[in-house]
């Protein structure tokens, strides 16, 4: 079987990370387990260092520069300690996985030369199918709709059918469902392709890193699949919630990353990106006024 390294990117979430390390260390299908502490300001790094072993490595970045850069940092380390590694498995700390989920991914990539990345079907902590398990590469028009005040509300209320999300009920009818973009909470990719396209785009800090990576793979004629037989459970964005509890800060990260995606993947000129960002600001003002009005009524 091909060699695989799991790269777990952590920020201020030692508890979830320790649980995941304990679980995957029991699997004999992972050659290396690499925990990347994204420069947590607490004692998460020190706690994880206690779990280091022959094939369990705990490393730390010099600064928290986002998901893309943190994952690339882990991949670079993986190649140093295991020069013949075949696959990278990038994981959030807050997932519950099985050996079968990982085995399925390795075997699928082994058997399909033109497939660059796979992920298992994602379940919520309530064990429901996650609506954003995968999606189509968003267009400029679709992204614009998500920042306009009225259509933005429709988007967040009905991800199932609005814009670029796939229909879950249709997708689960397949053992392997081909998708344009895979969610990055638990994604396996071929090391050769990852190196070929230059890894994740480090111009993003948070959000749209999946879209940018998928676009690179698309340009190289590669395919992506979601495997349905052995789903994983994603408990929620625990690391992100601890760092980004400020609504305006989160939205700034979204819009900045959206601008990178528009520029590099959709080739939108600066004026088009400026309009997108202005509409986003207007939507935030509209939301702020709405919240104040609600408070006054109470």
Describe this structure in words.
The chain is α/β, with parallel strands linked by helices. The protein is 45% helix and 20% strand. Strands 1, 2, 3, 4, 5, 6, 8, 10 and 11 form a nine-stranded mixed β-sheet that branches. Helix 1 links the parallel strand 1 (4-10) and strand 2 (32-37). It is globular, with a radius of gyration of 19 Å.
Q: What is the count of helical runs?
A: 12
User: Could you say which overall geometry the principal axes of the C-alpha atoms support?
Assistant: globular
Largest sheet: 9 strands, mixed
Number of domains: 1
Layout of secondary structure:
Blueprint: E1 4-10, H1 14-24, E2 32-37, H2 44-49, E3 56-60, H3 67-81, E4 87-91, E5 95-96, H4 99-111, E6 115-123, E7 134-135, H5 140-145, H6 149-157, H7 168-171, E8 176-179, E9 181-182, E10 186-190, H8 191-197, H9 209-219, E11 223-234, H10 238-243, H11 247-264, H12 270-297
Parallel strand pairs: 1-2, 1-4, 2-3, 6-11
Antiparallel strand pairs: 4-10, 5-11, 6-10, 7-9, 8-11
């Amino acid at each position: 079987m091909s060699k695989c390294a799991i790269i777990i990117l952590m920020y201020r979430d030692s508890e979830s990370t320790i649980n995941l390390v304990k679980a995957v260390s029991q699997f004999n299908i992972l050659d290396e387990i690499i925990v990347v502490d994204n420069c947590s300001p607490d004692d998460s790094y020190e706690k994880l260092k206690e779990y280091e072993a022959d094939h369990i490595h705990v490393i730390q970045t010099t600064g928290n520069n986002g998901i893309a850069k943190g994952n690339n940092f882990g991949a670079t380390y993986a190649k140093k300690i295991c020069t013949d590694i075949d696959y990278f498995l990038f994981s959030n700390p807050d997932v519950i996985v099985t050996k079968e989920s990982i085995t399925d991914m390795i075997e699928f990539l082994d058997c399909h030369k033109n497939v660059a990345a796979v992920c298992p079907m994602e379940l919520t902590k309530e064990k429901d199918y996650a609506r954003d398990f995968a999606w189509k590469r968003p267009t400029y028009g679709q992204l614009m709709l998500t920042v306009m005040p009225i259509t933005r509300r429709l988007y967040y209320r009905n991800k199932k059918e609005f814009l670029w999300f796939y229909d879950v009920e249709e997708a689960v009818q397949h053992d392997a469902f081909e998708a344009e973009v895979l969610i990055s909470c638990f994604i396996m990719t071929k090391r050769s392709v990852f190196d070929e396209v230059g890894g994740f785009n480090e111009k993003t800090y948070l959000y749209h890193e999946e879209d940018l990576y998928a676009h690179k793979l698309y340009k190289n004629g590669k395919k992506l699949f979601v495997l349905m037989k052995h789903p994983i459970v994603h408990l929620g964005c625990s690391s992100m919630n601890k760092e980004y509890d400020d609504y305006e800060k989160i939205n700034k990260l979204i819009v900045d990353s959206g601008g990178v995606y528009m520029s590099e993947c959709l080739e939108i000129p600066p004026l088009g990106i400026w309009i997108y960002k202005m509409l986003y600001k207007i939507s935030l003002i509209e939301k702020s006024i709405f919240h104040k009005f609600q408070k006054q009524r109470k």
